[in-house]
Amino acid sequence: MKSYLPPEYIVERDEDKCIRCKVCVNQCTYETHSYDAEDDVIRSKDENCVNCQRCVTFCPTHAITIRENPTAYRENANMTSDVIKDIKKQAETGGIILTGMGCDRPLLTYWDRLLVNASQVTNPSIDPLREPMEIRTYLGMKPDALEMEYTNGDIELKTQLTPQLTLEVPIMFSAMSYGAISLNVHESLARAATKAGTYFNTGEGGLDPSLYKYGEHTIVQVASGRFGVHSKYLHAGAAVEIKIGQGAKPGIGGHLPGEKVTAEISRTRMIPLGTDALSPAPQHDIYSIEDLRQLIYALKEATNYEKPISVKIAAVHNAAAIASGIVRAGADIVAIDGVRGSTGAAPKIIRDNVGIPIELALASVDQRLRDEGIRNRASIVAAGGFRSSGDVLKAIALGADAVYIATAALVAIGCTVCQKCYTGKCPWGIATPDPWIGKRVNPDIASERLTNLLRGWSHEIKEMMGGMGVNSIESLRGNRLHLRGVGLTDTELRILGVKMAGD
Amino acid sequence: MAVQQTKTAGISQKFLANVTQEKGVWKVNAENMPYKELNALLRELDSLGAEQVALSNVYGQRYLGTDLKTKLKIDIYGTPGNDLASFMDGPSIEVHGNAQDCTGNTMNSGQVVIHGRAGDITGYAMRGGKVFIRDDVGYRVGIHMKEYMDNKPIMVVGGTAEDFLGEYMAGGILAVLGLTLKKGEQHRARYVGTGMHAGIIYVRGEIGNLGKEVKKVDVDEKDLVVIKGLVKEYCGYFGKDFDSVMKGKFFKIVPYSHRPYGRVYAY
Fold it and tell me: Residue A233 belongs to a domain with what CATH number?
């Protein structure tokens, strides 16, 4: 069938600048560029281009420009170009439209409507360059009360504490599975987490044994497919996360297509080569909060109560009530992933239409747990589209103990958010199961870029805290008086639990 | 008294009242022991190098057999609770009674033999080891069993199963012998093998309602070798007559494709 879809992008090459070095030809995994030896010219197939900017970045003479195809359909606020193209694509294939990364619709990003306070005159601000700033965070269940014994001036803690994760910076790397991303990216995240004193999350595709040595900074995930889950894997991590849902695709399962199940990935996931790796939508042993409790304690027993257990859900309408159930079921950490959360592959219709913004879910979950007097029984980790340290700081003021970042981490190591992760051909070597393409990520460099990002963000968090007159992140946590809203309705302000700016 | 102490050396004080040792078998009276304590005791016995443990008066304690490092042999008298042998890696469990739900959840290796029936989701995501059940099982049994090279889970159900048997199965062998069915009675399970994309389900007796991703085919010589081996093992555990079991008609359920949902998406 002839495709009616126009090329999305146009590749322009400045012939005066092009030195025929063929870097673009070699770098493009979509075979956009080819060298014509007869005419000594490089030609490009526009229809293959995904605008990942790999060739643009690596062209030594800056000869390439990628432009959006200007032969757009007639402007229409409802039947936009994207809508028309999607309909045509489905008419040609009869399939579900896949996409990658997070929702790109202009859904309200409440972080942009929240502003942070600063000290002026009274309660003077603190200079983080000269004075200590405490941003260390402990994740896990906190006891209702601490019992202590004083003997000869020494204080001894009598209360038995449950296992905690120690974060030197309240930012962790969110779940991304080996298979969706390359082994080199997993290694980069593991090494960066180790260096920065935080954690990376394996996602649901298991953990390559070569990365077990970073286990003290690893959260191992258990999802419905139970890929690569066995006793050694559970013991390898510092914490275990039960994945119920994901912000990019709440309520549906995952699906790593058979062509991505290479020899290495079949080994780590422990499934036959080339079969579809199907993660069913529900975990078949969890149909209720009681069942969830059973799995939480199955994992606590399987790890001898040595590791905190996290439960990750997508931010949905009843998130507050569900989170309450999760905490009562015995989870040490509740992770909530908002509608802007990313993915390696999801149906576009679900990514863009299902779930709620993390800001609202976070505020309502924190409030609900406080109202019920159980907020201390679990830590809250917020996820889903964190773009900067400003977002992180606001999330902590709204009630998060820490946040998960994934898109930002990938952008740090090269990702340009072209949204083609599901093809497995990521020219940046990130979202690919192909070890040959994966070599484009050098873990030495990528882990340095990641630690740099975390260092930058922690400096910024300290700067903002100092400006607020706060020297410990504990004083900021859930302290919504440090936030004010702009351009929000009364209902939005009520759910967020913040006052209007000026009030 | 002194003899008693040496025989239970290394066991925590709080467990001493529940434990005795006779002829190399550690006997545990599990009455009134919450599962957390019972499992802690099993870990102690495991780390002390115990080879055989007999648990009596087991009344629904969960997670028995998890997080043990050796090939401990555990006999359970009574009714173990949910998640028996979950994430189990090595031990061998014999249940003299019925098991409840989720036996062998994500089990890696080892063996479970149940002299009775087992509940729902038995063998969920099992990736190795063997589970033998004398009688029937509940719903969603063998869901997402999967194999990788030498890791191949095997489950034999002597009786019949309920709906969603072998759903999303990604490897291993699941055999249902139908010995509890009356003459002329069919297996009742519906949606058998829905989403299945690897592995084999052997069924003795008639079964009607299959998922659309699987087909029913006759067994060949190679299958019969496997089936005979499994039936022989089953009959050995439960004292059944091999020849009369083999007289029944066997067939197998296999997936059409390793990629059942390969054409659902538009790229």
Answer: 3.20.20.70
What distances in angstroms separate CA A335 from CA A166, A263, A286, A427, one per listed residue?
16, 32, 17, 31
Compare all CA atoms of chain B with the CA of A96 and give the residue at the minimum distance.
Answer: B265
Task: Please check whether residues A232 and A89 belong to one and the same domain.
Answer: no
ipTM of the complex: 0.93
Q: The CATH number of the domain where B207 resides is what?
A: 2.160.20.60
What is the full per-residue pLDDT of chain B (267 aa) written as tens digits? 444 445 677 788 889 899 999 888 999 999 999 999 999 999 999 999 999 999 999 999 999 999 999 999 999 999 999 999 999 999 999 999 999 999 999 999 999 999 999 999 999 999 999 999 999 999 999 999 999 988 999 999 999 999 999 999 999 999 999 999 999 999 999 999 999 999 999 999 999 899 999 999 999 999 999 999 999 999 999 999 999 999 999 999 999 988 877 777 776
Q: Which residues of B touch A255 (CB under 8 A)?
A: 261
In a domain, A229, yes or no: yes
- Asked if residue A166 and residue A84 are part of one domain, the reply reads no
Question: How many domains does chain B fold into?
Answer: 1
Q: Which of B39, B43, B197 sits opposite A278 (nearest CB)?
A: B197
Rounded to a whole number, what is the distance in Å from the CA of A231 to chain B's nearest CA? 6
B80: in domain: no
Q: Which of B116, B82, B112, B81 is nearest to B96 (CA)?
A: B116
Q: Which domain holds residue A33?
A: 9-95
Question: Please, what's the b/e burial string for A29-53 (b: 16 or more CB within 10 A of its CB; e: otherwise)?
Answer: bbebbebeeeeeebebebebbbbbb
pTM confidence score: 0.95
Phi and psi at residue A388, to the nearest 5°: -160, 170
Q: CA nearest B199 in A: which residue? A: A272
Q: How far apart are CA B199 and CA A264, in angstroms?
A: 20
A329 and A184, same domain (yes or no): yes
Asked if residue A27 is part of any domain, the answer here is yes
At B258 the three-state DSSP class reads coil
